[in-house]
Amino acid sequence: MSTVKLKNLVKSYGDVTVVQGINLEVKAKEFVVLVGPSGCGKSTTLRMLAGLEEISGGEVSISDRVINDVAPKDRDVAMVFQNYALYPHLTVAENIAFGLRIRKVPKDEIRKIVADVAETLELTPLLERRPADLSGGQRQRVAMGRAIVRHPKVFLFDEPLSNLDAKLRTQMRAEIKQLHKRLGVTSVYVTHDQVEAMTLADRIVVMSAGKIEQVGTPMELFNSPANTFVATFIGSPPMNLIEATAEVSDAGCYALFEGQRCLLPTLSQLSDGEEIIIGIRPEYIEIEPVADATAIDVKIDLVETLGSEALLHCKFLDKPFVIKVETHGQLTHLENLNKLYFRQNAITVFDKKTTNAMIASDKK
Ligand SMILES: Nc1ncnc2c1ncn2[C@@H]1O[C@H](COP(=O)(O)OP(=O)(O)O)[C@@H](O)[C@H]1O
Ligand SMILES: [Mg+2]
């Protein structure tokens, strides 16, 4: 099984650098998702890996072999695109077989491989149809079939589900995940959708403006974001952020904001009077008193019902603040809440100047 390594990878168009020295190691069989806002350089990075874009600097290796100068067709990678890129005049079977025919695989063998893949992807009844007569989900499956038959060392996906409606996207997401479990092919998957990243990835790479912000498992990014960008990009609704001033004494570390005083994790890097940002996830806020939690005065402006859950909206320092709670079928009491409880270890403290998270020394 193959590994992928990006070393100081750079892409420039003229004097604009859009990928700014990316370092990443994808392990054998790993499913890594590159996620970030539109224009941050995800597709460019993937296309350099596939050989579809010239590399301006650095190295791309597959299984420890540098492939910068290897032609795309010799890299042994298969790419699935957002727009499927199927041949409209060919049938499903011919589309899936295309790469095999080019490589002069014997006809009988091709027929068997196509039949197997069609079975796996539930495309058997559709083999004689043309792409125009397929639904979006079926077309995407054909595109994956075409990638699978080549037995590539690495699968590359560029927003393969973005053209599908929400329900189909969820279904195809599960199919891709199962396929990866079954085939175990090292995969690099690009999306702007953090939910897709969270559900599919073994590890997520969060990018912004051509740089990597953080690499980690979905839960690492959710619970220990490296900075405020990751804190607000991963999770929905995003992590709440409040600007505050630190109060540090022998009694412990506190955050002061809007006349309130909130107990923080004990952080040796924090100094008295420092400007900080405290972050707390909507899911990690308590509405009943618990141990090690500070009571915070609040006025709820709006309750949004999602069924089993509700979002409570309020403001701190004129910035929106959201709490996610389970309703247990009861809503009436929620808009009258006047206290929230911030547990000490549910709070992340960020340096306001650098926006980087401060990590407790026992967590290092
Ligand atoms: N051929 C090109 N010439 C100039 N700039 C480009 C070209 N292709 C992409 N870019 C720029 O590179 C940046 C990254 O693009 P891209 O990798 O497609 O982003 P993403 O896939 O994350 O949305 C964008 O600012 C885009 O405008
Ligand atoms: Mg893109």
Characterization of the model:
By secondary structure, the chain is an alpha+beta fold. β18 and β19 form a beta hairpin. It contains 8 helices and 22 strands. The model has no long low-confidence stretch (mean pLDDT 94). Strands 6-7-8-3-9-10 form a 6-stranded mixed sheet, with helices on both faces. The protein binds adenosine-5'-diphosphate and magnesium ion (MG). The site of magnesium ion has 2 residues, from α1.
How is the largest sheet built, in terms of strand order? Answer: 6-7-8-3-9-10
Q: Low-confidence runs (pLDDT<50, min 5 residues)?
A: none
What characteristic shape results from the CA principal axes?
elongated
* Count of helix runs: 8
The CA-CA distance between the termini, in Å, is: 32 Å
CATH topology of the largest domain: Rossmann fold
- Number of separate strands: 22
Bound molecules: adenosine-5'-diphosphate, magnesium ion
Radius of gyration based on Cα positions: 25 Å
Protein name: ABC transporter ATP-binding protein
Pfam family, one: OB_MalK
GO molecular function: ATP binding
InterPro entries: AAA+_ATPase, ABC_transporter-like_ATP-bd, ABC_transporter-like_CS, ABC_transpr_MalK-like, ABC_transpr_MalK/UgpC-like, Mo/tungstate-bd_C_term_dom, NA-bd_OB-fold, OB_MalK-like
